[in-house]
Amino acid sequence: MKKLIEQQMNKMRPLFQQGGKFERLHPLHEANETFLLTPPDVTKGAPHVRDQFDLKRAMIFVVLALIPATLFGIYNAGYQHDYVNQIAGATLLDHFIQGLRLCLPIILVSYAVGGIWEVLFAIVRKHPVSEGFLATGLLFPLTLPPTIPLWQVAVGITFGVVIGKEIFGGTGFNVLNPALTARAFLYFAYPAQISGDKVWTSVIDSKHVVEGFTGATPLALGAVHHDGATMIDVLHHAGYTLKSMFIGLEPGSIGETSTLMCLIGAAILLISGVGSWRIMLGGLLGIASVATIFQNFGGPNAKQLAELPFYYHAVIGSFAFGMVFMATDPVSAAATNAGKWIYGFLIGALIVLIRVSNPAYPEATMLAILFMNVMAPMVDHYVVQAHIKRRSRHVYA
After folding, report:
1. The pTM is what?
2. Same domain assignment for residues 259 and 339
3. Distance between CA atoms of residues 34 and 26, nearest Å
């Protein structure tokens, strides 16, 4: 099979090279060729480094790491739909099929519209198609509710690719994570379809939903003051235990509810060497430190969230998904080893700080990561300057 593909690619290559009939479509041919086969280009002189692990392979590992969260998110969307709408006799397969009906169109629109923009910019600029979109095209829909209108998915991914990445020069030059940029745009441009209690579960007829259903996520419960009850009591009363939130069978964005699936994805990224364990662990240390401070000394607002132990903060909302897949983006994250610790720690600290001090926006992962994306170059700058000063003392001692 490999030889057959290679033969066909060799026959087609002259058509897409300079002077060929389809010269302008060379980036599209190059993307298919390097995706299916090892890149044919090599350096003309020594030294040579032979390594088949290029950027496309790295992005493929990210997509593989996202598969557990994606499959679980599809199942969870179907499960929530069937449970709330009291679909009698629904099986595990029925839940998954219903989830596919809700989530697959969102994923396909994200890849189709975003892919068109990627190819268009590659053709105009005459550079290879960005392999980074293999991950962005899946990351973005996993941050959305299963009820999001498809036209908003198209608008959001357009903003993320064009404004969040291409105007900076494309992959490798973007300051912000494109998938989070797209989600932030939708959150502030169309808040009714991406926030509140009614968007996380598909409801057929509000008159026939299960009794007591509100659609509120665990974090949404913490944004409302409950006199005389601790936050843990409120969560348990609503049916959210530490175990259930860790597994993730609850209302929320498609791919963000299950901490367990995110940890499986983290293991894939770490074993393959694609993800940064420093950023992930730094984020956990940050959320643990600040959450412990608030738990012992209290916070100015949202008392329930301030009194939560750090391990509840770690399984509520999109913390795990954000730290594993978004914060570790090699382009927008810190690059130095010490900088990665600082970058991850500050993301975790900001998540708790925003959750506790701003009850209007209890889910803070998106804002915390985007803020630190902007700060990452400064973090690396001061880390490098500190190294230079330390070495200078040895030189002139």
Report:
1. 0.85
2. yes
3. 12
